[in-house]
Amino acid sequence: MIGGVFVIALLSCSVQMLKAFGIGYSTPTLASVMSDLLPAYTSILAIIFGFEKLDLRVKSSQVRYAGIIVSVTGAFIVTLYKGLPITLVSLPKKVSAADQLLSSMQSNWVLGAFLLSSCSFCLAVMLLVQSRVVRDYPGEVITVALLRNIFVTILSASISLIAEKDPNAWKLSLNMELMAIGYSALFANSIGRGVHLWAIRKKGPVFVAMFKPLGIVIAVIMGVTFLGDTLYLGSAIGAATIVVGFYAAVWGQAQEKKMVEDCPTSSRESSSPRVPLLHSKSTQV
């Protein structure tokens, strides 16, 4: 188990570094687009390594993978298409940071896109490794989460000590930066990773990856409700597309699970040698 958890921690550090460098070479918008590739990467790798079975002759499998494709398409619509404003706010119009970054996009955005795509690929691999670890040790989910956080801390601290030469960069003050670090440590790395491991053990890596585009819908709703952001047509269309694809994928997976559960029962009943073929006819006579 220790070796598998160390691999998970190593992949987690790789994901964080690839995402940071990718955003530095490109834009946050491109990072959002590339992160939407996670369900596709996870589905492909799960089929290749035998975590999932692909049978396009079955209707539930067709609906499931079509839902994943539709959900990823909706995430691309939210990210790349703005459209006309639907709700207007009374705040003065300002140029967003994303627009400024897009206007000053660096010439090496291809390298940034490659790094961000590699980030999503490593995250998909990490989900599969986590699935194998929690499957082999079903009762050790909390232990796996604890060991992962310890290994990630050691690896991140070692890399930071080598890469960061300025000692002032390690100073923290009571400001929004410290609050963001505390929030990330409590919810993202502790509670979030524990829930991820539990969900992977129950439903598998593809099910967890399907929720990635759904986070964009939640971000749009929270931004409009609490931050007063303007809701644009592209966000509404993309959010609706993501929801349709998400529910289609969940319905397809539920039908596949039902078929797997019903298959052994039906096969046992049909192959039982104790049931007389002329039982009903003999009772009538």
TrEMBL record:
It is a multi-pass membrane protein. Its main location: membrane. InterPro entries: EamA_dom, EmrE-like, WAT1-related. Residues 262-285 are annotated as: Disordered. GO terms for molecular function: transmembrane transporter activity. This is WAT1-related protein. Residues 1-20 form the signal peptide. Pfam families: EamA. Belongs to the drug/metabolite transporter (DMT) superfamily. Plant drug/metabolite exporter (P-DME) (TC 2.A.7.4) family. SUPFAM superfamilies: Multidrug resistance efflux transporter EmrE. The keyword Signal applies. The chain crosses the membrane at residues 30-51, 63-81, 109-129, 141-163, 178-199, 206-226, 232-250. One of its GO terms (cellular component) is membrane. Residues 111-248 form the EamA domain. Keywords: Membrane, Signal, Transmembrane, Transmembrane helix. It is found in: Membrane.
